Amino acid sequence: MKKRLIALIIILNSGCSVDPVIEDSEPDYVPVDVLAVADAIPRYEKRTRAGNPVQYEVLGKQYKVLTQSKGYKKTGVASWYGTKFHGRKTSNGETYNMYGMTAAHKTLPIPSYVRVTHLKNNRSVVVRVNDRGPFHDNRIIDLSYTAAVKLGIQQAGTGSVEVTALEFDSVETNEKKKVSQLGPQQGDIFYLQVGAFVDASNAQQLQQKLSASGISACRIQSANNQGNELFKVQVGPLYSDQQAEQENQKLVQIGFSQSQLIVEK
Hints:
The protein has two domains: 148 residues, RlpA-like domain (Barwin-like endoglucanases, Beta Barrel), CATH 2.40.40.10; 83 residues, Alpha-Beta Plaits, CATH 3.30.70.1070. 20% of the residues lie in helices and 31% in strands. It contains five helices and twelve strands. The strands form three sheets. The chain has a six-stranded mixed β-barrel. Strands 10-11-9-12 form a four-stranded antiparallel sheet. The chain starts with a helix and ends with a strand.
């Protein structure tokens, strides 16, 4: 009984909207290009003790946390949460960032990764579940503000979606990938993607900043993403894993530690 009480206190002190009378809202100023925010990337993470009680109770209803996310697939209503909870703690102790690609779910293990597809427009995003909720009838997932914008449901407040759990690599496979992820095939050309923007001028400013920092080999590639044109800033071409690693170290030194490796055959 004591353990259940502690688990309940953890849930009730988390960031998602346990209290149904609290009204949430969009930010007055958005400091990031939300449409260019990358989806969460499924990967192995140790299941946290925080946020994963065997079962818990909220508003008089009991919920049982699933032992695994594998095979989970459900359709229902998605909602989102924003400024009222931005900066507050999520159920596993992380800080909720409304500009990240995260979500709250009542029963999936924390953390889990799911693909959410808006059934009205067929847009989809991948989010990382790190919170509990939404504790409202007929809602199956609470999305971050950014995920809601990318799906096109932030104005309506809710939308009909399909939620599908995604698999990720085991610890052993993950370690093997770390060793071989830069391994080139003959003829491969590498690029390091530093950023992606809806506004072309933002991409040009980043390209100029990189050039001023001594990284002259840099291009802007345009691509269509769910009906939106994105302008991707990529360092390269690079012709070996050693050269890619050297350029990545330069990027880290000037403050770009999250570059993404792109391989062109």
